[in-house]
Amino acid sequence: MNLNRIKLFPNIPALRSRNYRLFFGGQGLSLIGTWMTQVATIWLVYSLSNSAWLLGLVGFTSQIPNLVLLPVAGVFVERLNRHRVLIATQILSMIQSLALAFLALTGSVNIWHIIALSLFQGIISPFDATARQVFVTEIVERREDLPNAIALNSSMFNGARLIGPAIAGLLIAKVGSGLCFLIDGLSYIAVIAALLAMNLKGGKKVVAVHAHPWQSFKEGFSYTFSFPPIRAIILLLALVSFMGMQYTVLVPIFATKILQGGSETLGFLMAAAGVGSLVGAIYLSTRKSVLGLGKFICYSPILMGIGLIGFSVSRILPLSLLMMFLVGLGFILQFTSSNTFIQTIVEDDKRSRVMSIYTMAFFGMLPLGNLFAGGLADLIGATNTLIISGVFCILGSLIFSRQLPYLKRLVVPVYQKLGILR
């Protein structure tokens, strides 16, 4: 049977694993719905309020629990069955989306409903994201296939990021946001069914942990930040998340007031970023080794910064789409390369805690960046806000580049221990 699977997926190593194929398929369908909801939410908020500040506030409430709960989630997910955690988080997320669909379709939705449901989803996300990061390592049968699986996850995520916003833009224009929320809620059935269909009898067991949760929490932080390469990567990701990802809550302003479009324009702009991310993820999935990822981690924020600055000053849709492509490409090259590098070198018994901190660096900084962007855009305008964001991404990349030779020397012994370098 293994030979047959190798023949079916000769160039996609991770898909040799049946459980990963189930995960890939189910999650891929569900993520299309997730991106539809993201676009529908920011459009609905802007339609109801016409306020950059409220766009930032909704983004803040949906992500702020990550900053508080992700390190805690890492400790507890390490002690729990990741498979069961994911089933529970998917069911709760489905309930959230269906509740939002009901409110929107009945015409009774208002801003406080969106804020409350965004906060509810935000509480679920830290446990879901941490469990998902570690679960991939458990359902990929060969360790050497892990980098390919991580890159495929990014391809799946950004393929959905391409399809979901485009569909959402068209649906919002025709029938409103409610149908997007409904489709998202129903799409969770696919990933729940895939999780239930997995055969995990021969899978990895939960690591036995005897330390007190607070002690495990402190050990996770110490382990993560005591190794300069991991520390530098996480700090750069946090900067890009705080400054670079602000565009996600400001795009409706550019779609309507600057480009004189509507929900279709918003969908196309978000989809253009998805195309860039998908291209980057597909390229990374073709790489056979983690060697050389440092350059992607280092220089990709420059590409993202150029895209943000170009997008902010563009006044024509084709150029704006091209700049959004660069934004998506630059971000995914950094995010996926960082993820692959850390997952490859981290010790198995600390993976949950380290990946929770890594995820916190991204998702934990998003709410602060969203709130900052919304307030700053009200003061100096969305255009100037994104120009500042792009400049900071470029500066962060240049600072990291000065440390790169030193960081590479520290990584060599780790690669030799893992057999990556001989």
Explain this structure:
Helices cover 83% and strands 0% of the residues. It is an all-alpha fold and 422 residues long. It has one domain (2-197, 212-418): MFS general substrate transporter like domains (Growth Hormone, Chain: A, Up-down Bundle), CATH 1.20.1250.20. Helix 2 (18-49) runs parallel beside helix 6, helix 3 (52-77) packs across helix 8 and helix 10 crosses helix 11. The longest helix has 37 residues, at 382-418. It starts with a helix and ends with a helix. The relative contact order is 0.16. The model is unreliable at 1-10 and 203-210 (pLDDT under 50).
SSE order and pairing:
Elements: H1 2-8, H2 18-49, H3 52-77, H4 82-105, H5 111-139, H6 146-175, H7 178-197, H8 213-226, H9 228-243, H10 247-258, H11 263-285, H12 293-313, H13 317-345, H14 351-380, H15 382-418
CATH topology: Growth Hormone, Chain: A
CATH level 4 superfamily: MFS general substrate transporter like domains
Helix content: over 70%
Distance between the ends: 32 Å
Q: Main beta sheet: strand number and arrangement? A: none
Q: What structural category characterises the helix and strand content?
A: mainly alpha
The count of DSSP E runs of length 2 or more, i.e. the number of strands, is 0
- Count, helices: 15
Number of discrete domains:
1
Shape: globular
CATH class: Mainly Alpha
The ordered string of helix (H) and strand (E) elements is HHHHHHHHHHHHHHH
Report the radius of gyration as a whole number of Å: 21 Å
Which spans of ≥5 residues are poorly predicted at pLDDT below 50? 1-10, 203-210
Mean pLDDT: 83
Strand fraction band? under 5%
Question: What CATH architecture would you give?
Answer: Up-down Bundle
